[in-house]
Each structure stands twice: as structure tokens, then as C-alpha cells.
Write a structure and sequence with these properties.
Number of helices: 10
Shape: globular
Structural class: mainly alpha
Distance between the termini: 23 Å
Number of strands: 0
Oligomer: single chain
């Protein structure tokens, strides 16, 4: 546990340092700080992966069987996906969103009970890690879409009010933010779909039914329909800009409830307690 805790704490510190670099780049107009932040985040991702490797050697299971593990894994998926998107769009300003959010997720993980949960043997299947990888990376893509949507609305409001602040000069164009939003949705929706499908097959092997209308399943389906409506609107009706940004924000709020609210507030087969060995 000592090595695992050390790696976890170092990763949290690195995400904080990267957040500071990106915020300095955005608020202090220091491009070099953004480049530094990118390398610091990359180091954090590698260190974070090492932390998961040590944890896996201890528990033998996927690192999402407790709130502590789930928040940490979400942070890792978010940072890794942001770095990949940054290679494509070179939007260092998004680092001022992804970095602090990852740090907050790590803080939430740090204050959550760090219990090593032995997965119920009934739930052990190769489909479980496949399911969580699709689901968490889909969530990370939607988180980035949420960030792009917020930035779009901020810039759109300043343009309409003709009240420009320093932030306006730092934000990408509305067209670029809308493109980022669409790309994130285009990545996140198939991942979420594959997560639901693989989860259904996993549920059938574990509980003997593909779908049981468990609260987690129900809210995941509601969230899926919201994002499906958004993508349908973009592809067929021509939804762009402000409307797409608002839908991305609403969808992410539903996703957060599906990810956290259902596990903490509602009883069902997907609560963290239900994963424990009987």
C-alpha cells in the first residue's frame, strides 16, 4: 500500500502543477507554460498508470470497484484523452479545464475511503474491464465536450454583449470550439454505446439477464438518448453553436448523475457495495 499511496499522491501533485501551468498560460499569456503543462500532464499519466498497475497486482481486479478507484480512473481517462485531442487541435486553453478537473477528481478520490474491494467472483469476467474502459473513456470525451460547450457560451455571450475581457483573447474561435465539441461527441457516443452493449453482455454472464432496468442502466439509457438526440440534431437538422453547446452541458450533468448520483443515492446492482465479494 505504501508504494501505491506514494504514486497516487505524486500523481495528484503533478496534476496540480500541470493545472497551474495551463492557468498561467491562459491568464498570464505565457505559451511556454502551456508546453510545460503538456509534458507535466504526460508524466502524470504515466505515473498514474503505474499506480493502477501496482493496485492491480494487489487486488487482481479492475480499478473501479470503489468510489476512490472510480474517481481516480476517471481522472486518468480524462487527462489521457485530453492529451490526444491536444495533439489534434493544439488547444492548450482546454488544459485549463482538463487539468483542474482531473485534480479535483483526484482530490475527491483522496478523501474517499481507500478500500481494497475483492470483486464478487460472480462478476469476474473479461467483459468487465472492456465495459469500464469503453464507459470511462466515453465519459471523458463528454467531459471535454462539456468544457468546449462552456467556453463556447462564454465567448458567444461576450460577442453579443460586446463586452470583451482578457479571456476572450485567449479562447479559440466559435467555429473551432464547435468543431471540438462535435469531435468529442463523435468519439464519446460510440464509446458510450459500446460500453452499454458490453455491459449488457457482462450482466447476462453475471446475473443471467441482458437488461434488468437497474437504476444505473436506466439512467445510462436516458443519457444515451440525450446524446443520441444531440448527434441526430447536428447531423440531420444542422444544430450548431449555442444549441449544441447547451445540449452538451445538459448531457454531461445527466452523465454525472449516472456516474455518481446513482451509485451513491440509489440502490441497485451497480452500487460499489454490490461489487464486493459475498
Amino acid at each position: 500500500m505504501g508504494t501505491m499511496n506514494l504514486l497516487f499522491n505524486l500523481t495528484t501533485l503533478i496534476y496540480l502543477l500541470a493545472s497551474i501551468c495551463y492557468l498561467l498560460a491562459m491568464l498570464g499569456k505565457r505559451p511556454q507554460a502551456a508546453r510545460t503543462g503538456r509534458w507535466v500532464l504526460l508524466a502524470g499519466v504515466v505515473l498514474h498508470a503505474a499506480c493502477f498497475a501496482v493496485r492491480h497486482s494487489t487486488t487482481g481486479g479492475a480499478p473501479v470497484t470503489s468510489l476512490h478507484e472510480s474517481l481516480s480512473f476517471f481522472a486518468w481517462c480524462l487527462v489521457l484523452l485530453f492529451l490526444l485531442f491536444d495533439l489534434r487541435f493544439r488547444l492548450s486553453v482546454m488544459g485549463a479545464f482538463a487539468g483542474p478537473l482531473a485534480f479535483l477528481l483526484m482530490l475527491g478520490s483522496a478523501v474517499s475511503p481507500d478500500v481494497v474491494v475483492q470483486l464478487n467472483p460472480m462478476l469476474r469476467s473479461w467483459l468487465f474491464p472492456v465495459h469500464i474502459v469503453f464507459a470511462f473513456f466515453g465519459n471523458a470525451a463528454f467531459a471535454l465536450a462539456f468544457g468546449a460547450g462552456v467556453m463556447y457560451l462564454v465567448q458567444d455571450r461576450m460577442l453579443k454583449s460586446k463586452r470583451f475581457t482578457r479571456i476572450y483573447q485567449l479562447l479559440p474561435s466559435l467555429g473551432t470550439l464547435d468543431k471540438v465539441n462535435y469531435t468529442c461527441l463523435s468519439v464519446g457516443f460510440p464509446l458510450m454505446t459500446l460500453g452499454i452493449i458490453s455491459g449488457a453482455f457482462w450482466a447476462n454472464t453475471a446475473w443471467g439477464a441482458y437488461w434488468s432496468w437497474d437504476p444505473k442502466e436506466t439512467w445510462a439509457l436516458i443519457t444515451w438518448f440525450l446524446y443520441a438526440a444531440l448527434l441526430h440534431g447536428r447531423l440531420t437538422i444542422g444544430w450548431r453553436g449555442r444549441k449544441a453547446a447547451i445540449f452538451s452541458i445538459i448531457g454531461f450533468l445527466f452523465l454525472l448523475f449516472t456516474f455518481l448520483g446513482v451509485n451513491l443515492l440509489l440502490d441497485g446492482q451497480h452500487t460499489f457495495e454490490a461489487f464486493a465479494q459475498l
